[in-house]
């Protein structure tokens, strides 16, 4: 079975964005880009909420073609164009979408169908609202949380409306030179009460 793996930057106090959606506090550098590259090599699908998908679609298909494109831009752009995209949305128009599946209902059934298909990992980059829905349904297999050395005080919470306990096992942790700590958790059992 394919694993659904959640990637998210968070502040130390548990926010993924500031009160107005600010993400300029997130620390990224070549070391982290290289690490994410090792994860994308093991994945052949990406899952997004509509807002994140539209943001990604507006940048990544052509990012590697720009004259000033970094090595990371070229590599991630090539990966983005190659992999299947899955979008959780009840409002998105599906006309003209290439290599993209939109899930608007029957979340558990549709995600499990995709997870049972032949393939490798499915990565969720960002997409906090979509991730909250997946978490509530016990569909996330692994978490990579990138804890940034900052306290935001307010903003969009990392986990919102968690209704049932989900036990996790720490698999590994990585300390990056920029002060970000990556915590890799595996879901032990969905919705433990």
Outline the structure in words.
This protein is an alpha/beta fold. It has a domain at 45-116. It has helices at residues 30-40, 50-57, 60-63, 71-82, 107-115, 128-136, and strands spanning 4-11, 15-17, 43-49, 84-88, 100-103, 121-125, 142-148, 156-157, 167-175, 181-189. The strands form two sheets. The protein has an eight-stranded mixed beta sheet, with helices on both faces. It has a two-stranded antiparallel sheet with strand order 2-8. The radius of gyration is 16 Å and the shape is globular. The model has no long low-confidence stretch (mean pLDDT 90).
Give the termini distance in whole angstroms.
25 Å
Given helix and strand content, the structural type is: alpha/beta
Q: Give a count of the beta strands, DSSP E runs of length 2 or more.
A: 10
How do the strands line up in the largest sheet?
5-4-3-6-1-7-10-9
Largest sheet: 8 strands, mixed
Shape: globular
Count of DSSP-assigned helices: 6
Helix and strand run = EEHEHHHEEHEHEEEE
Computed CA radius of gyration, to the nearest angstrom: 16 Å
* Helix share bin: 25-40%
Strand content: 25-35%
Low-pLDDT stretches are: none
The mean pLDDT is 90
């Amino acid at each position: 079975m394919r694993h659904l793996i959640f990637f998210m930057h968070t502040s130390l106090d548990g926010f993924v964005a500031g009160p107005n959606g600010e993400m300029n506090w997130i620390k990224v550098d070549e070391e982290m880009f290289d690490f994410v590259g090792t994860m994308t090599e093991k994945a052949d699908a990406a899952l997004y909420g509509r807002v994140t998908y539209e943001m990604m679609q507006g940048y990544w298909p052509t990012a590697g073609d720009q004259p000033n494109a970094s090595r990371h831009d070229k590599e991630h752009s090539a990966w983005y164009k190659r992999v299947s995209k899955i979008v959780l949305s009840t409002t998105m128009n599906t006309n003209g979408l290439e290599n993209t599946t939109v899930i608007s209902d029957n979340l558990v059934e549709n995600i499990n169908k995709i997870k049972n298909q032949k393939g490798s990992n499915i990565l969720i980059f960002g997409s906090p609202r979509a991730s909250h829905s997946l978490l509530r349904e016990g569909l996330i297999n692994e978490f990579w949380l990138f804890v940034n050395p900052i306290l935001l005080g307010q903003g969009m919470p990392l986990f919102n409306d968690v209704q049932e306990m989900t036990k996790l096992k720490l698999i590994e942790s990585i300390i990056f030179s920029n002060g970000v700590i990556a915590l890799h958790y595996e879901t032990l059992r969905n919705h433990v009460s």
